[in-house]
Amino acid sequence: MSARAERGFTSCWGWIFYVGTGILVAFLPLGTLMAAEEGVPIDRKTVVQAALSSHPLVSIAYARSRAQTEKVGVAQADYYPHLTLSLDQLFLNSAFVGGVFPDYQPIAPEMLNPTLTQEITAFGRRHFRVRAERFRLRSRKEELAEARLAVSFRANLAYDQLAMFEHLVRGARKNEEDAALHLRMAQERLARGFGVVTDVTMARLLLEKTRLERIRQENALEKARADLVYAMGRDTPVPYRTDGSPRQGGPDWPVDALTAYALRHRPLILAARARDRESENRVDEIRTRNYPHLSLFAQGFLLWGVPATISGAPPGSGLFLPTFQSGVALSVPIFVGGEILHDTERARMEAKKESEKTRLVRLRVIRNVRKLYDDLETQRETISLDQARYDHARENLRLVERRFSRGLVDGVTAVDAETEVLTSRERLIADRFRLSMIQDGLDREIGYFRGF
Description:
Blueprint: H1 3-36, E1 40-42, H2 44-54, H3 56-76, E2 82-89, E3 110-121, H4 125-192, H5 197-231, E4 240-242, H6 255-265, H7 267-287, E5 293-304, H8 308-311, E6 323-331, H9 339-405, H10 411-446
Parallel strand pairs: 1-4
Antiparallel strand pairs: 2-3, 3-5, 5-6
């Protein structure tokens, strides 16, 4: 075949390939869209609300908060009078109210004993106990807020992760289709005598590589769906797919402002501070055990079953006249074997430990905010480079298509240019979702809760 005939055949074959590639590319978005429509659609708001309403972490934190509310009520019960009623069965054979039972014969009367006690003052012990329980309640409420923040963060993260892998699966499937087309073209060129065996071998390797990548991305997509179901607090697997709900942006402040906001609003830090105050009140409550205790008491006695010869009651009644006693009791601890001293020192060490734990939480939050802020800036620069790479790939595809239509480049170059556009576009989309995930993490670290 002459050089002119070969060039003509190559140009004709290039035109046919260009048209076929254009038709395939025209139909590929429809196939990709159909693949993307697989699954049950769900929006971001539904995911977050389902997580907040049914995730076990929120339920556990809520139960702890309610239990601590009851503990506060238990501590406050010391402010109110205590009334008890006891029924006693007595067996007596001794002197009684100044007399002696006839012939020392035992009797078995019953006694009804109502008792009323009212604490007047414990010189601060009751006060510090109630304050400690209230600070523990405040800590539990902040822990509930932290649990809601964490669950909301994980739900948003799972949603963004699923959306990212949906796009990556689309890209992987398109890359596999392009690689298969590349292989067919290489085989046809070899059969026509215009190609080499090396092109076919490389095309096969490319197809296997893209097929493996597609399998990996599909597996990652299924894992992301499982993570979304878990983040929603549900135990029934559902093949969800995202509907493209946008993320509500958080504050875009300098790193110092974000750090200051975190120290004021992060529930984790507020809970630690409340535990500090609780420990301080525990120390005061134990120390006041050395102080006196003043209380009021009133006690009554009502006996029956006592013979009338002893009780002086009318014959046949068998009822002893009711009596009562009341007074004020002052108790002062003198020596309890050093128990209060050791308990006080132990409580002080516990308070110091809680203080250091709070400091550690502050340091960790400050570090995480700064690291995430740096990651955010890096990811923004990465997206800028991705956008530039995508623009260059589109411009390159436009030039290649123009040269391909004139027979100046082969089909392999055209397919590679198309694949580069798709890959750069999917990389840009994935990095945008990664930016959203970093923003989710930063919002959580500063304690910013997005409502719907």
